[in-house]
Amino acid sequence: MTILSTIGCFLLIYLAYCGVLPFILAIAGKFQNHEQNRIVSKQRKILVLIPAYKEDSVIVETALQSLNQEYPQNLYDVVIIADSLAKTTIESLLTLNINVQRVSFEKSTKVKALNLALQKWMDPSYEGVVILDADNIMHHQFLANINVGLEKEMYAIQGQRKAKNADTSMAFLDGASEDINNHIYCKGAYNLGLSSRLSGSGMAFSPLVLKNALEKSVAVGGFDKELELELTSKGIRIHYLEEAIIYDEKVRHKQAFSSQRTRWIQAQYQYLGWNLRHRVWDGIKALNVDYIYKVSILALPPRLLLPIILFCSSFSWSLLTGLNNISWLLWILLILNITSFIVAIPKLYFRKKDLVKWLGLFSAVIQTLRALTNLSKARTSFLHTTHSTIVSNMDKNKIS
């Protein structure tokens, strides 16, 4: 076999994996998890951490909303980790029934803020730690559902993130992407006995598990990816609680979409490279399927680009060699990939009034390509996604 043939076989296997895996997970996501036992022996004390870096426009409203839980107020504490907030914002926060932890770093990162807060607020009375983003709104039963998970000895939990807004085409598409993640990489993977993905917020952990996983982290961006790999490498499964709902603001504009994807893609390939070099062989020797799966999905191309890659591969091969077995395989992989999206996207995204928003898909692809050109910047600095004010008519505009 020549070198070119070897490369060709490797690329074909890679494309087959990229096309088949999301399809399998999408089908698995159609099945319901029948764990309905919600009886708990007690209500546990929970620490809610909300890192807020330059989030003056949303953090006060987020703090207010965090107190609207159907859970005893004496059993959860909210800590706003205030990094570079305005003096007036701090003053407003201090009037609320929450805690404010001020931090300041030469180079701010979410991991630094969380580690400092854990050091100062870690207390044996807490049996769970929730991590939110500064724009997140917890469903009023979020903490009660997290308590159910803790009752079942779930040491790492990802809740279901839903779009808080769909007021622009980009926000609409970002919300669709979130729901695809929920269906395929959270519910689908979990139904197959694998770990759910972590989304960076709407997460809950056993305090000791979180502290041990984060204490050596130096992540600039994508700390959720690092957490996934650290937990699964230690044999800790990440559970998915679909009923634990968190509302997350979706990016409204192209620039924010591109910046966000730059951060995500850079973190994805950074952790793929590090784990392939330093840890994956240990996982293979230990037959740690969950960890190996987590490493393997880091090798997938960005979701918006995969159908384009498969289409170009199918078309080019068919043009050069005609319709043969490989050509048909490539076309089938493309169909499977598109089908996985169709299966994963909720029907509500195809309402007549929202169809025009799908026209922004071309722009989203362009922004994803643009993100690939800025990866070097994301390696050394945290690309912050700025959030706007809370959408006052959230319930009207969100996709749910």
Account of the protein in words:
This protein has 400 residues and is of the alpha/beta class. It has a domain at 46-253: Spore Coat Polysaccharide Biosynthesis Protein SpsA, Chain A. Helix content is 51%, strand content 12%. The radius of gyration is 21 Å and the shape is globular. Mean pLDDT is 90; it is low at 390-400.
In short:
This protein has 400 residues and is of the alpha/beta class. It has 16 helices and 8 strands. It has an 8-stranded mixed β-sheet, with helices on both faces.
Q: What is the class of the domain at 46-253 in the CATH system? A: Alpha Beta
What is the third-level CATH name, the topology of the domain at 46-253? Spore Coat Polysaccharide Biosynthesis Protein SpsA, Chain A
Low-confidence stretches: 390-400
CATH architect. name of the domain at 46-253: Alpha-Beta Complex
Largest sheet: 8 strands, mixed
Provide the succession of SSEs: HEHEHEHEEHEHEHHEHHHHHHHH
Query: What is the helix tally?
Result: 16
Helix content: 40-55%
Mean of all residue-level pLDDT scores: 90
**Derived structural class:** alpha/beta
Counting DSSP E segments of at least 2 residues, the number of strands comes to 8
CA(first)-CA(last) distance: 52 Å
Rough outline: globular
Estimated radius of gyration: 21 Å
What is the CATH superfamily label of the domain at 46-253? Spore Coat Polysaccharide Biosynthesis Protein SpsA, Chain A
Strand content: 5-15%
Strand order of the largest sheet: 3-2-1-4-7-6-8-5
